[in-house]
């Protein structure tokens, strides 16, 4: 095994584009690992942890780092780098000079929602520019300091604006999905979500039951914390209540601060639109049960395949933070639950719904008991999650591990939920649409 590392001075591409380049190079036969990234301090730290020796560089340089199982594959790997970079460069060419600042860009986009996805430490500056120009913000960035979030949401509340985020991964506005959003039909339900994958679970359950959603306003996972106080949730509730197309509202959140939840429930009681609550925590309903409360008749949630009993611990390895929180609520104390989308795992890395490498490495280490996994579909997520997950599941099953999967998606999603489910069932997984159902089934399987 050998490594190749080169620095390309002054070469630039955005992080999402370089992630895709890295993934394409990793598919070359003979390549064990590949990372193409800008030489920022954070990216250099990640490369060092991967075992690469790095030459001198500046943040304006691009680093191409490749580990090879077969030295003869280097030429093909470098050719793949050039091909991917060239293709993405052409796809981003525009006929006009791009704007240099958020404020100047907004002069050409009155009424637009501003999507901010810069690194967390810098995100508040761009978000505040947008708010000052009178625009709502979807703050996709994570690792944003709490003090920055408080400042942004305080300003927004004073000016009747909405800050969706930080770490807002999912939203639907007037039927248009933003971030990691599932494709659903419009309908009478409006969602306020201090949760990304929790929102997606509710979207998909309602879609399966034939109920549409016109708006799903993400507010960031910390919005119902004591520090933030539900500022964005209150504004989102006000907006949905004022929308005549919304007949029912549901609020979805990871476990909230009790005093914040009580304050919001009191506020919601004064609205004209009925509000339901899907707040995780001890003694509260899970997301499936909360979704069923919105329906006139409880449907049968689909289950495909059948996991064989495998005595041993349940290990929940997640790409969705809210689903991981729900798993902790359902599973017993002996279960191991890891959210690979947590900030500690995404510093310098893409979200695991885009790059599942860390989770796949952990799955390969499991030799007994039950694996409980989530597969989250929708725009922005991996184009074919089962392509990489199915071989890992097959290998786990062959080691005697039972695998139960919650596949959160709709028939309209670009990954085609039916195709993803079929691929996972073929290699021995049991697949549920309801994550709560999958978690309870994992417990049952672990007990034989």
TrEMBL record:
<dbReference type="GO" id="GO:0006099">
    <property type="term" value="P:tricarboxylic acid cycle"/>
</dbReference>
<dbReference type="InterPro" id="IPR016102">
    <property type="entry name" value="Succinyl-CoA_synth-like"/>
</dbReference>
<dbReference type="GO" id="GO:0004776">
    <property type="term" value="F:succinate-CoA ligase (GDP-forming) activity"/>
</dbReference>
<dbReference type="Pfam" id="PF00549">
    <property type="entry name" value="Ligase_CoA"/>
</dbReference>
<dbReference type="GO" id="GO:0005829">
    <property type="term" value="C:cytosol"/>
</dbReference>
<feature type="domain" description="ATP-citrate synthase/succinyl-CoA ligase C-terminal">
    <location>
        <begin position="318"/>
        <end position="442"/>
    </location>
</feature>
<protein>
    <submittedName>
        <fullName>FdrA family protein</fullName>
    </submittedName>
</protein>
<dbReference type="GO" id="GO:0009361">
    <property type="term" value="C:succinate-CoA ligase complex (ADP-forming)"/>
</dbReference>
<dbReference type="InterPro" id="IPR005811">
    <property type="entry name" value="SUCC_ACL_C"/>
</dbReference>
<dbReference type="GO" id="GO:0004775">
    <property type="term" value="F:succinate-CoA ligase (ADP-forming) activity"/>
</dbReference>
């Amino acid at each position: 095994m050998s490594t190749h590392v080169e620095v390309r001075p002054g070469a630039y591409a955005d992080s999402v584009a370089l992630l895709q380049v890295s993934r394409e190079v990793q598919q070359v036969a003979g390549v064990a690992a590949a990372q193409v990234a800008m030489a920022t301090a954070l990216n250099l730290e990640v490369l060092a942890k991967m075992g690469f020796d790095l030459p001198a560089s500046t943040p304006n340089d691009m680093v191409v780092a490749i580990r090879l199982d077969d030295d003869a594959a280097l030429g093909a790997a470098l050719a793949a780098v050039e091909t991917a970079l060239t293709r993405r460069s052409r796809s981003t060419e525009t006929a006009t000079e791009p704007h240099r600042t958020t404020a100047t860009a907004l002069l050409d986009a009155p009424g637009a929602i501003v999507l901010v996805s810069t690194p967390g430490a810098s995100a508040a500056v761009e978000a505040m520019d947008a708010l000052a120009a009178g625009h709502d913000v979807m703050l996709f960035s994570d690792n944003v300091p709490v003090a920055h979030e408080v400042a942004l949401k305080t300003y927004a509340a004073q000016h009747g604006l909405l800050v969706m985020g930080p770490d807002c991964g999912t939203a639907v506005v007037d039927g248009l999905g933003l971030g990691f959003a599932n494709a659903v039909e419009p309908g009478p339900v409006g969602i306020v979500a201090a949760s990304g994958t929790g929102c997606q679970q509710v979207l998909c359950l309602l879609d399966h039951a034939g109920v549409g959603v016109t708006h799903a306003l993400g507010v960031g996972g910390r919005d119902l914390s004591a520090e933030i106080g539900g500022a964005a949730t209150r504004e989102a509730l006000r907006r949905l209540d004022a929308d005549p197309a919304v007949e029912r509202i549901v609020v979805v959140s990871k476990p909230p601060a009790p005093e914040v939840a009580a304050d919001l429930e009191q506020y919601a009681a004064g609205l004209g639109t009925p509000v339901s609550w899907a707040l995780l925590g001890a003694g509260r309903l899970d997301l499936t049960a909360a979704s069923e409360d919105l329906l006139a008749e409880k449907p049968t949630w689909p289950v495909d395949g059948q996991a064989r009993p495998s005595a041993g611990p349940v290990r929940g390895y997640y790409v969705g933070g809210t689903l991981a929180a729900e798993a902790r609520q359902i599973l017993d104390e002996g279960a191991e639950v890891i959210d690979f989308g947590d900030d500690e795992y995404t510093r310098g890395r893409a979200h695991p719904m885009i790059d599942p490498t860390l989770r796949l490495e952990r799955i390969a280490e499991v030799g007994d008991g039950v694996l409980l996994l989530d597969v989250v579909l929708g725009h922005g997520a991996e184009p074919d999650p089962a392509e990489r997950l199915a071989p890992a599941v097959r290998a786990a099953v062959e080691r005697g591990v039972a695998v139960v999967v919650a596949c959160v998606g709709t028939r309209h999603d670009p990954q085609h939920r039916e195709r993803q489910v079929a691929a996972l069932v073929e290699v021995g997984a049991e697949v549920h649409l309801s994550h709560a159902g999958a978690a309870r089934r994992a417990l049952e399987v672990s007990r034989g």
